[in-house]
Fold these 2 entries.
Entry 1:
Amino acid sequence: MLTFVVFFIIIATSHSLDNGLARTPPMGWLAWQRFRCNTDCISDPDHCISEKLFMTMADRLVSDGYAAAGYKLISLDDCWLAKTRDKKGRLQPDHDRFPSGIKALADYIHAKGLRFGIYEDYGNYTCAGYPGILGHLETDAKTFAEWDVDYVKLDGCYAYPSQMDAGYPEFGYLLNKTGRQMIYSCSWPYYQLATSLQPDYKTIAKVCNLWRNFDDIDDSWESVQKIIDYYGDNQDELIPNAGPGHWNDPDMLIIGNFGLSYEQSRSQMAIWAILAAPLLMSVDLRTIRPEYRDILLNKYVIQVNQDPLGNQGRRVYKESGIEIWMKPVTPVINGKYSYAVAFLNRRTDGTPSEVSVGLKELGLNHEKGYKVLELFDKKDLGVKDPVDRVKVDVNPTGVVLLKFIALKHSVKRFGN
Ligand SMILES: *[C@@H]1O[C@H](CO)[C@@H](O)[C@H](O)[C@H]1NC(C)=O
Ligand SMILES: *[C@@H]1O[C@H](CO)[C@@H](O)[C@H](O)[C@H]1NC(C)=O
């Protein structure tokens, strides 16, 4: 039994980037976490960073139902570049691994109805040591527009974090000036926090569509938990910055790789949905097991993530390894929100933990009641009123994700 009171403050952020993009968190596929900087196409042709890899993943995104579920972006990460610029000072891909060039790759991806993302770095070099954009900002913005890029992830290695308050807006301005709409993903606050500078989130939300706040994700439950803790511990600072067009980015989904169990994969998916996080899968779509694919394709969970209000949810309870996370979502009935509620079990006892909580304690006080759905196993838990309780069994390192849908009319019922 839990006792606590929940306060929700819903703040409408008004001044933010108005390029019309990323009204809901971006969804797609990003190479880094699964394929890293594997440039060895001689001995590992199926896993190296090459145009073939991105074309294959684009094919899979469409043929295996991901694109239909909303995952529309295919994005390069580090290590696509040649070590030097071309004779005119423009960026160029490694010609052995991208023999057709980046424009041709973008065309291929667009022809499938998908969007194309690119990676660069604000500094002198990318993190892996390829040419960065510093000193070439205008040329590179133009090059991206000429290549029909839709999404730019701009990293921050080999740069001074103190100069990012000027540099990231300058590049954002230059992207805008090209006239091509490109989602702008920034690593700006992450590098500032890493060097103990205080990010100016108000400005960041005006310049970037999404931004990284915390360490790169690794392929482990430990890494996922660190990220979950960071977003819970710093939620009062982070939540007000998020909303349609501008999102905190806790990094890629690692579901379907090597490091997460089935339960832990549901946990990552649920918390990323609650956080209104970008859903950027980084997994080999050729070999992912069906049960992990089902987690990524769960349309009810995706709907929580993509809710049009764009509220980033918050951790409302944390004790003895049990956490409750809540996100206000549509429909809103007479000013009362519906909610997605994640019950997360961080405990590792060899048995599920029972969590029982009254709706009122969760702040669910809509008098007409809520229709309650369990989203992963797709169970209808009936109608609950503020005086009722919910009871769930949460598996070790797993999650139960419920949606409380505010009702328009009270439902007459017996028993309960
Ligand atoms: C980037 O290169 C310039 C020119 O060589 C140099 O002045 C600057 O210190 C470098 N920046 C970093 C972060 O190393
Ligand atoms: C450029 O910025 C203006 C003003 O913020 C905005 O209205 C416009 O849509 C932007 N254009 C592009 C291509 O992003």
Entry 2:
Amino acid sequence: MATGTLHIDLDALVANWRALNALSGPGVETAAVVKADGYGLGAGRVARALSRAGVRRFFVAVAEEGAALRQELGPDPEICVFSGHMPGDGDILHDLTLTPMLNSIEQLTRHFESLPGHRFGVQLDTGMNRLGLEPTEWEAACPIVMAQAPRLLISHLACADDPEDPMNGAQLNAFRDMTDGLNVPRSLSGTGGILLGPEYHFDVTRPGIGMYGGAPFTDATPVVRLSIPVIQTRDVAPGETVGYGASWTAEDASVIATLSAGYADGLIRAMGDDAVLFAEETPCPLAGRVSMDLLTVDISHLTRVPAQLDILCNQQTIDDLAAAAGTIGYEILTSLGTRYNRRYAGSA
Ligand SMILES: *Cc1c(COP(=O)(O)O)cnc(C)c1O
């Protein structure tokens, strides 16, 4: 078997959720964001483990994800859909009891006309200019919406990963201005907002990346380990080159291991020279470009050829690999391809 193995530690995931739940504080419900197939780790397995740990509300990006999640979790948890009520969503929202976060006057109209009495929440735009009703729209729509008993009012922070950014306070004030006194549960914060402090928590927090072990939750326990098998090795003489573009040249006699994963598996080409792989604790540098299905790694300094090398592990987290590739941990996780053998541990 040449496919890599993605080890997913569900106990670590649950421990991270519990830590974020503790940070959210007493009286605040900590939900869980499992969009994009649970940030690439398998929404069903992730959500089942979290559900057992006490999560009662999940967020997904689109209704189809919510439908799949409902089949996994059964009737009890609330499943909220960030993209709201799109054309064609009516049957899914109704049949699977999903809660759309309505984003526009158009969506409010569609929802109230096509699914009268069906549960919903509203997303408000406090400055990110991405989704949600703007303050003037909300002012006009608020009485009509309140008459329909929304279950949740949410907004989203644009700069929550930087506690110093003045945008956080501005969005907090805007959210308060739009929602104070309405007596509807409110939610403003994902992982970053939880770390900003209690005034950002309101009634419901909705962490994603921190549960999966990523920044800005620096105290997170790593959730993933990615091991990639060695297909073959070869001895390379000084002056010989390795890989596409012959971009790596051996300075000394070297041993190169060829591993079975590449950019088609989410190991993006841009990580280039800064990424390393690990044989247990020992770092081994990439030698040459990342191919579609293969990596070439300098293992000259190892005393024996390992069966596999790790590219994500305690020594190299999703954020370390993201830094090498000029991206963020979220993109590393959600890019992990479908070829890996996903192996779950814990929370069985
Ligand atoms: C993805 C997302 C979250 C979760 O954010 P993290 O930074 O992953 O914790 C919360 N709210 C909204 C609206 C999102 O799109």
